[in-house]
């Protein structure tokens, strides 16, 4: 284990061994290879360099690379674990793993906390939630009066901010999500369950011995 | 009615948070 080396066709920056990635995640080796098919398609959509740029990520999400979206930026930043402005295959698989139906609830809750903690202060603050609300209203072309936005914020913080300090800490978030499990829906991608049927071509590119899968 | 929802249910409606579309290749 751990000494498998990819051959030339698989060489790209950050491309880790499928057997090693499968050992770290809920994915099987075949599933990691199927994810590589998806990764190749996304990472070659603008520049074929074996890395996913923000532009390529947005193109895959919206089929339009010019679309700026606060949330897509945020998700991309969480995929960009090494803070290099690009996502390599290993991080792509490890972050998608959090979205696996079998991933732990704790990991999903942690991920959403980081997602909404826009400024990385360790708290989800009222200003951050307001900023996200305004962004979703713009995105959906829905108009709400400022007063209505404040009412939504009041209601949310009344439920979530148990110690009434005006911000949501990690333990408050944990309790809030446990009471409102619908908030974790975005964290589970059923597609990941049968990724090998979505990308069957992985079989033709597989370089791992069948015994290892 | 939006005021009956909590802020995060609204936020989660963003297409930017719904990664399912990554799989529509």
TrEMBL record, chain A:
GO molecular function: calcium ion binding; kinase binding
Residues in EF-hand domain copies: 67-102, 104-139, 148-183
UniProt-listed GO biological process terms: calcium-mediated signaling
Calcium is among the record's keywords: yes
Gene3D superfamilies: EF-hand
Main localization, broad class: membrane
Keywords: Calcium, Membrane, Metal-binding, Repeat
Family listed: Belongs to the calcineurin regulatory subunit family.
Role, per record: Acts as a calcium sensor. CBL proteins interact with CIPK serine-threonine protein kinases. Binding of a CBL protein to the regulatory NAF domain of a CIPK protein lead to the activation of the kinase in a calcium-dependent manner.
Protein name, per record: Calcineurin B-like protein
Species in which this protein is naturally found: Chenopodium quinoa (Quinoa)
Biological classification of the source: Eukaryota, Viridiplantae, Streptophyta, Embryophyta, Tracheophyta
């Amino acid at each position: 284990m751990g000494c498998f080396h990819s051959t030339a066709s698989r060489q790209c920056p950050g491309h880790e061994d499928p057997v090693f990635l499968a050992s770290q995640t809920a994915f099987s080796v075949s599933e990691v290879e199927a994810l590589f098919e998806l990764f190749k398609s996304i990472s070659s959509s603008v520049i074929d360099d074996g890395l996913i740029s923000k532009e390529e990520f947005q193109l895959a999400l919206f089929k339009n690379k010019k679309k700026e979206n606060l949330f897509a930026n945020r998700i991309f930043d969480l995929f960009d674990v090494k803070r290099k402005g690009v996502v390599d295959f290993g991080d792509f698989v490890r972050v998608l793993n959090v979205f696996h139906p079998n991933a732990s609830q704790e990991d999903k809750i942690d991920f959403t906390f980081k997602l909404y903690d826009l400024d990385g202060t360790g708290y989800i603050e009222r200003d951050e939630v307001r900023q996200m609300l305004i962004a979703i209203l713009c995105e959906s072309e829905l108009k709400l009066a400022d007063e209505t936005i404040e009412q939504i914020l009041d209601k949310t913080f009344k439920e979530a901010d148990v110690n009434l300090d005006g911000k949501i800490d990690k333990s408050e978030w944990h309790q809030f999500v446990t009471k409102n499990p619908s908030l974790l829906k975005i964290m589970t991608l059923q597609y990941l369950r049968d990724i090998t049927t979505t990308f069957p071509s992985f079989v033709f590119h597989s370089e791992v011995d069948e015994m290892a899968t | 009615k939006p005021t009956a929802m909590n802020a995060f249910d609204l936020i989660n409606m963003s297409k930017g948070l719904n990664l399912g579309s990554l799989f529509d290749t």
